[in-house]
Design goal:
By secondary structure, this protein is of the alpha+beta class. The protein has a single domain, classed as 2-Layer Sandwich (60s Ribosomal Protein L30, Chain: A). It has five helices and seven strands; from the N terminus they run ββββαααβαβαβ. It has helices spanning about 45-60, 65-70, 80-95, 115-130, 145-150; strands at about 10-20, 25-30, 30-35, 40, 95-105, 135-140, 155-165. Strands 4-1-7-5-6 form a five-stranded mixed sheet. The chain has a two-stranded antiparallel sheet with strand order 2-3. Strand 2 (about 25-30) and strand 3 (about 30-35) form a beta hairpin. Helix 1 runs parallel beside helix 3 (about 80-95). The longest helix is centred in the N-terminal third of the chain and has 14 residues, at about 45-60. The radius of gyration is 17 Å and the shape is globular.
């Protein structure tokens, strides 16, 4: 009888926050959201994808976004966060991890993100190469509290679940 190894699962949490500034496009979860301001940051400031990246890196034990893509490295200046997520996805595949699911909360007082959640969900699922139903995107306000509540920043929190791929050896 062949004994199968027990499945291995790991979860990770990611967070990010950036200030809203004029003169930049607002990118969230890899899509452009029409708004009067965008997010500051060394890259494109996409807090949604940054939180997902941190959650995936945390679950896999591969560090964090600041270590992987430091804001002191010129190659990451104004980087598209979709490309950063693609690099992390490739690293997970090399380590035999598959993404079971991602749950993401975008914290923003403005703009209203209700009409963008489906597009964000589809985009994150597509970038990760996972089923649409394995991604959830929620939009919350901060009820007027803190930098997010004052409309000065947008934040994100994500959790990801990874499952180790079973490889049959002969």
């Amino acid at each position: 009888m062949i004994e199968r190894p027990k499945p291995e699962y790991r979860s990770g949490i990611g967070t990010d926050i950036h200030e809203l500034v004029s003169g930049r496009k607002l990118k969230l979860c890899g899509i452009e959201v029409p708004y009067k301001a965008g997010l500051s940051g060394y890259s494109d400031g996409d807090v949604g994808l940054h939180a997902v990246i941190d959650a995936l890196l945390g679950a896999s034990g591969l560090g964090d976004i600041g270590t992987m893509f430091p804001d002191t490295a010129p190659e990451w200046k104004d980087a598209d966060s979709k490309e950063l997520l693609s690099i992390v996805k490739d690293m997970l595949e090399e380590k035999d991890w598959e993404i079971a699911n991602v749950d993401l909360i975008i914290h923003a007082e403005e703009p209203s993100l209700v009409s963008f959640k489906g597009q964000m969900k589809r985009n994150v699922a597509g970038l990760l190469g996972i089923d649409f139903t394995a991604v959830n995107v929620k939009a919350k306000t901060n009820e007027g509290f803190g930098d997010v509540g004052a409309g000065d920043a947008i934040a994100a929190t994500a959790i990801a679940l990874l499952k180790k791929k079973f490889r049959r050896t002969l």
